[in-house]
Amino acid sequence: MQSVRQSRGKNTAMDRELGVHQGSQETEHYQRLEICAVGHRLYQRGYVIACEGNLSVRLDTERILLTPSGVCKGDLTPQELLLTDLSGAVLSGAGQPSSEMQMHLLYYRARPDVQAICHAHPPTATGFAVAGRALEEAILPPEVVIALGKVPLAPYGTPGTSELCAGLEPLVSEHDAILLENHGVVTCGKNLRTAYYHMETVEQCARVLLTAASLGRPRLPSRVEVQKLIAARSRYGSMVRDDRLEMHLAPESADDSFTPTRQERESFEESLRKKRPLRSRSGAATDVQE
Hints:
single chain; two-stranded antiparallel sheet; L-fuculose-1-phosphate Aldolase
């Protein structure tokens, strides 16, 4: 009996960390705990450092909970969160709103289905954003196609200004994850846990693409196979709104498969990484010739 109680206690603690709250427990108090749990996880995984990143949750049609400016997400406490309205006016809380609050408000105004926003700087995905490279090839892992479709790149806008929102505005209505050029990643979801998982998915996708490029043979699946994944989205409750997706697909062929040419592979690789010197046996640096 004692082991059963301990097991239930562990499950409850895990649910609390991940933001699993049922029915009437979905209160402001628990949403504060959820934001802190996700903030701590972002920091532990290295998706944010120092005072980077910001999180928010929509409480109702008029109020959101938002992380304050200048606070490390690894040390975030429920009392530090700010309560604002959808115009950005602070209703309660002692700190200053995140400088990127307008990005959150843009999502909430444009997407009634969105209940939470996660913004962070996961290193590999941010590397793609710095390189000006969207995550939109159909070589993405199947889970990415099902959950997110392509992950576009929003043009650079100075953080905390209207420029950032101007670049995002054409994309937010159709995408749950967006790379921000020379900046980071923003994701949304039906709750904060979903928005956070989208962030993990984007970073994992970037790692896989970078690894595939380093191996020299990224392969595009057939159009038929990608369309099967797109059709499966409804079964998994995906929030992706654009059924067409318009991902970069392989052309059809007799055996319905496609392997990039050497020139295509080299072009793809060069867009992800620069040439790096190798050491010869004599110790001199030599350029890689492919």
